Amino acid sequence: MTTDPARRDVARSDAYRLLAACFCEPERELFLAENLGANLAALMEELAVPAREPCRRLAEGLDANSQEELFLEYTALFLGPFGAPAHPYGSVYLDQARQLMGDSTMVAKKMYQAAGITQEVEGPPDHICLELEFMSYLTRRIAQALADGDEAVVAEFSRRQRDFYTRCLARWVTPFCNAIRDNAQLPFYRALADCLGGFIAAERRHVQEMATTPVPAA
Amino acid sequence: MKIKRRDFLKLSAAAGVAAAAFKGTALNALAEVTRGTIGGEKPGEWKASTCQGCTTWCPVEVFVQDGRAVKVRGNRYSKQNDGYVCPRGHLQLQEVYDPDRIKVPMKRTNPAKGRGIDPKFVPISWDEAFNTIADKMMALRQAGEPEKYLLLRGRYTYMRDLIYDGVTKIFGSPNNISHSAICAEAENFGAYYTEGMWGYRDYDISNSKYVLVWGCDPVSSNRMIPATIKRLGDVLDNATVAVVDPKMNNTSAKAQEWLPLLPGTDGALALALAHVLLSEGLWFKEFVGDFKGGKNLFKAGATVDEAAFEEKESHGVVRWWNLAVKDMTPKKAAAITKVPAEQIIRVARGMAKAAPNVAVWLGPGAAMQVRGGYSAMAVNALNGLVGGIDNVGGTLPSNKVPTRKMPHVDAYQDELAKKHAKLKKIDQRGTRAIPALKKGKSGGGVVTNNTATGILNADPYEIKVAVGYMNNFAFSCSGAERWEKAMARIPFFTHITTHASEMTQFADIVLPGATSTYEKLCWVKQKQNRYAQCTLLQPVIEPLWPVINDETEFPWMLGEKFAERGFPNLIDFLKKEFKDPETGKEATNSKEFTEYAVKYYTQDLWNGKKVGGDKITGWAEFRKRGMWNSDPQPYKTRWGGKFGKDEEKDGKKTTHGTVSHRFEFYSETLKKALTGHAEKHKTTVDDILAACNYTARGELAFVPHYEPPFRYGSEKEYPFTFIDYKSRLNREGRSQNAPWYYEFKHVDPGDVGWQDVLKINPADARKLGLKDGDKIRVTSVAGSIECTAHLWEGVRPGAVAKAFGQGHWAYGKTAAKDYAKAVPRGGNNNTLMPFDIERLSGANVRNGGFTGVKIQKA
User: Fold this and answer.
1) Helix, coil or strand: residue B816
2) Residues B309 and B235 in one domain
3) Confidence band (pLDDT; 50, 70, 90) for B26?
4) Shortest CA gap A204–chain B (Å)
């Protein structure tokens, strides 16, 4: 486990980013070529997140199943079309009546805007990929500011990160992961739910601490 | 969501803590922008569009804030809805933001098709989707069989011509099949063969002194809903409202009179009302005329000399009396209909007293029956007897909406297309037992539900490629399961839709369609309160995903692919005939084409041409207002022998409207149509009527008369008569995945929130040992469903009623209980109601007590 804050935040940023990639349309060859499973496992280990077992299953799942099988499972879980069991949008879990573009969606959108981020793809702003990518971005900015010794930026982005984590992402990841676990047939997606759930739970302490702890001198 | 860049998957080069290691970002779907250029919460804006939750087609405004639609109201300029919408307008918010929508083009990867079989859809690109469709279609042309392409049209806008006629005819198929006959064509039949108008009537209820609502619930259906909701209170104060409906509805709950007739006996009740009006000398003489001697000769049971009566605006009243009315006394009708004779007399006298400011509001309940053509005529004939036709407080035709017609396609049809587009249609219209006499022509109208018969029997030929849009015939047609078999027979089917449904279950390609109010650009026309309207559907929000406008973008994208395959005719037609009317430019993509086409059709409403109605100074103003109102519809436009007119063109005489040019109690128009159809098949009118399951023979075929209701299932085995009706929350078939639909279901009289209930009279329930809330199995000769029993006095003993809408086994998570196991939520009425059609009009049957059911505890 790393104790260096900047290095730790780079690892956290990478973990968020790789998890975001896992929720994109699966590209098995690319995932394998980039050692997705091993890299994710290494990051979790570095961050002391108890996710060794799910990361191993995730890697094995990538090996075991074909691109076609992964793509079918991805479609069945997240797209449907007859009512996907694990819609990857926050408002489905947070707003009344499982709708898109709920008030919680607009909260996420405004937080992106306030942090100087815009969405480059279609779809609601609270897609799991976007929320994870946003956390990756915020964490990276913190790491960079730590390295630069820019206390104001560290404080600002730590606050943004805490707010986004508590008001958006962390509020719906648990039911989302449960929905995946309940419906996934392939080990890759079951393991992914465990990885995400474990990581987001472990993140709670970090984001709370970072937003309240004075920034150490560079 | 796709991975756009490979470095999104790479670990950061973070071996050290040097600042340089963190430079740059690895963003995929997000991007950094300069802060300060993005505002916070922007002020909202009301944007004009149109609700297509039903066929009222209300001009509406949608409040859009930060790109999100949050509220709906009526268009402030509307003279139809006065700025209000009904519950359906609000419900669509849960349609556009439904997570279960189709978001990307998809293809089937499991070739097996059927209920409960996972199609294993996977996303594909638009390019792959259209390449596949174009290849399949072009293979038909290469084989010399373009007629084997079929278009199945569902809810449309008036851009329909492009996909319906443009694509189909230029490609070379006769098979553009509309949904219209599952809507209410038999209702139009009743109006056409009495007053010569194949279309829905307007009702001047603000000026009515008596409103007789028949077989519908105007505050929840039948084309002027918000206007009626707003006016009904005043109408109840100023006029008498009577409702004929076998079960209590919203309007009858407030009305002064409710006539709960036995289902399917509408003809007898209408004739009995006519009997009172005629035998008591109460008909409106300014319209119908009078006996030459001034003495009323209409006596119960007595034949009258036609020469003794001099008619004014009508034709054949005495012959009608002699053939069908004279014996239908209130007493006799009471025995048939179970409506008390004294109530029949009271209603008839009330109507006479209010005449001519009387509106008899003919709804589908009186018409969409196995033998409903004549009951629809009988009900509408009452409008003639009381002089309410084209009159103050009565029923009205519509003012013209001066939009353009689609340019001719002939020049773009090659020889193959010209020849094959004229082949027989797959719905078998115009055959001996399916006259489908729209506007007097044998085979003039669509027979939607019979299309499944044609597909299943490959008669007149096999269908190999089909496209469907905004429809779900495998759920919404009676005998729905036949459609499942028919769809499984089609080798290649493309469904353009907002939501996957039972029909999508059989699709090979699924394309995400734009929702009507929020994402489409197109136009519709309608009328209410004496004002016709043209109203735009507009993309008031940015679609969340790249959906397409089914009626314009599908033809364009298909046309481009046809051109790549050496068949440029379709895209040439779209480019050359739909240039921007302002600049003369040809469209270069599907979005431009859509806008140019809407401008083409509507240009005379905003280009300065003197067409009456609202003055709109340009396209930009038209889009901002979103609508155009006509001048008010004048009264008595067809009085003076103008219910029909003859035209001669190229030496051929044609008649528009009634043959006699008058309002017809004896329908010369139907006589001509039926005789023509019989001659075409070298047989007699009697033979045609027998083939069409009607009992009338001889001259009775040409007058509104009573036909005993036809029923599937013996009363012994299936003791209850099933009544189907539409929920006021049904957005046609598009709201069943909206949670609000279930939360507010109790707004339908007798219904219960979150449930699908069969309403049964408490006396009947007692006999069956049923309690409120019991789970029950309901079975007919056609099928069986499970639902919940609800004890309710609003349905008479012997009949049971259930709202259409629930029972989806393939839909989103809210509408279908368990898609994977094909378990429906509630029961589909169309599983119980057998396939049948009202053959004279081609209409789908859903009313008139034609389904007997038995009820058991589940």
Assistant:
1) strand
2) yes
3) confident
4) 23
- A84: closest chain B residue by CA: B100
Q: Which residues contact A207 (CB under 8 A, 6 or more apart)?
A: A158, A161, A162, A165, A166
pLDDT above 50: residue B60 = yes
Q: How many domains does chain B have?
A: 3
How much is the mean pLDDT over chain B? 96
Question: What is the structure's pLDDT at B689?
Answer: 98
d(CA B664, CA B404): 32
Q: What would the two tokens of residue B296 be?
A: 């009323």
How big is chain A, counted in residues? 218
Are B477 and B330 contained in the same domain? no
Instruction: Please classify residue B416 by burial: count the beta carbons closer than 10 Å to its beta carbon, then call 0-12 exposed, 13-18 middle and 19+ buried.
Output: middle
Sign of the CA dihedral with A93 first, then A95, A99, and A104 last: negative
Chain A residues within 8 A of B66 when measuring between CB atoms: 106, 109
Any idea of the CA torsion for A150, A152, A154, A159, to the nearest 10 degrees? -170
Maximum separation of any 2 CA atoms in chain B, in Å: 115
What letter represents residue B621's amino acid?
A: E
Q: Taking 70 as the threshold, does the pLDDT of residue B19 lie above it?
A: no
B357, B489: one domain: no
Do B126 and B174 have their domain in common?
yes
- The pLDDT score that the predictor gives to residue B17 is 46
User: What residues of chain B lie within 8 A of the CB of A43, using their CB?
Assistant: 11
Considering only CB atoms, A130 lies closest to which of B29, B811, B813, namely B29
Q: Are B167 and B416 in contact (CB under 8 A)?
A: no
* CA proximity to B330, closest of B282, B268, B281: B268
Q: What is the pLDDT of residues B576-607, one digit of tens each?
A: 999 999 999 999 999 999 999 999 999 999 99
Q: Which residue has the tokens 């194949």?
A: B198
Supply the pLDDT for residue B44: 92
* CA atoms within a 13 Å half-sphere pointing along the CA-CB vector of B773: 2
What is the mean predicted confidence (pLDDT) over B403-432? 98
- Examine residue B14 and state whether it is found in any structural domain, yes or no: no
Cβ atoms within 10 A of the Cβ of A22, count? 26
> Once rounded to an integer, what is the mean pLDDT over residues B213-231?
95
Report the pLDDT value the prediction gives residue A206, as an integer from 0 to 100: 84
Residue B392 has pLDDT above 60, yes or no: yes
Q: Is B583 in the same domain as B725?
A: no
Q: Taking 70 as the threshold, does the pLDDT of residue B21 lie above it?
A: no
Nearest CB neighbour to B22, from listed A10, A31, A98: A10
Q: Sign of the CA dihedral B411, B415, B416, B422?
A: positive
Residue B364 DSSP symbol: G
Task: Look up the domain containing B316 and give its range.
Answer: 202-396
Respond yes or no on whether the N-terminal peptide bond of residue B543 is cis (omega within 30° of 0): no
Residue in B483, B553, B501, B612 with CA at minimum distance from that of residue B182: B483
Residues B730 and B790 in one domain: yes
Domain boundary, last residue among B344, B379, B396: B396
B505 vs B830: CA distance, rounded Å: 17
Distance CA A15, CA A2 (A): 14
CA separation for the pair B479, B501 (Å, rounded):
17
Which tens digit of pLDDT belongs to each residue from B500-509? 999 999 999 9
Angstrom distance (rounded) from CA B136 to CA B138: 6
Task: Give yes or no: residues B412 and B468 share one domain.
Answer: yes
Contact residues, chain A, for B496 at CB < 8 Å:
none
Q: What is the pLDDT of residue B397?
A: 95
Measure Cα distances from B727 to B155, B221, B297, B721 in Å: 18, 9, 46, 19
Interchain CB distance below 8 Å, B1 and A13: no
Question: What token pair was written down for B682?
Answer: 């070298």
Domains by residue range for chain A, with CATH:
5-212 (1.10.3480.10)
B663 and B194 Cβ atoms separated by less than 8 Å: yes
